Amino acid sequence: MTNIKITKMHGCGNDFVFMDYEEYIKTGMTLEELSKRLCDRHFGIGADGLIIPVPYDGDEADIEWRYYNSDGTTAQMCGNGMRCFAKYVYDKGLVNKKSFAVKTLAGIKKPEILDNGLIKVNMGKPILNEPDIPFKGEKQIGDFKITPVSMGNPHCVIFTDNIPLEMAQKYGPELEKHPYFPQKTNVEFIKVISKNEIEMAVYERGCGITLACGTGACASVVACVLNNLTENKVKVNLPGGVVNVDWNGTADNPLQDVFLIGPAQYTFVADFML
Question: SS3 letters for 213-267?
């Protein structure tokens, strides 16, 4: 058996297992195997994903990460995970500045640790070109009008007057694997409260229902702005807490960076026996 050191963190209830790269090497397991083992909520630690910092020698970033969903699949990007990652690597001394660049499968992301303890992440520009999302179909699935958006990972945004969490629980599993999304999709149900506030629930690709989704919050605000439902600065109420999204784009000028601001918190640090 192998004893490894792990850290549990969460961003608005979206929870993750962290371990240093050296600890991962000790396991002798693939990341797919390890993520399924550690994220299991009955036989493991329990989490939505596994995140491992990786040293990076290139010029374009200060550090790299590996992110795996609880089902063992990779994810290109995770906004809540990135906020937790920023706090973890800074507190561990793996980076020595509060604003830095991280290499991900969705490109370079730039988190910043603010003076008030919140984490601000430049999530990059939304992807609306349908083949790049990827999305192949009509913007109507059954009774639902959908807005497809990618934040480095695909999202299907749906507006509702009903309770978003109940809608995500009921329709998320089927929509996640709808053939219009060839790489499957995250599914967000949105209730607009005002021009500057929304309520959101998500069925995450590879995870199921989670308490928060940072990329989903960003994709939802982009969809709100494109559909003329909100202003550009929006408070997003999630089942696990609140984040704020700032996007200065418009339908005519969508190629603007999206900024996500929210908390990152430790749950516990422990030794785990594999």
Answer: CHHHHHHHHHHHHHCCCCCCEEEEEECCEEEEEEECCCCCCCCCCEEEEECCEEE
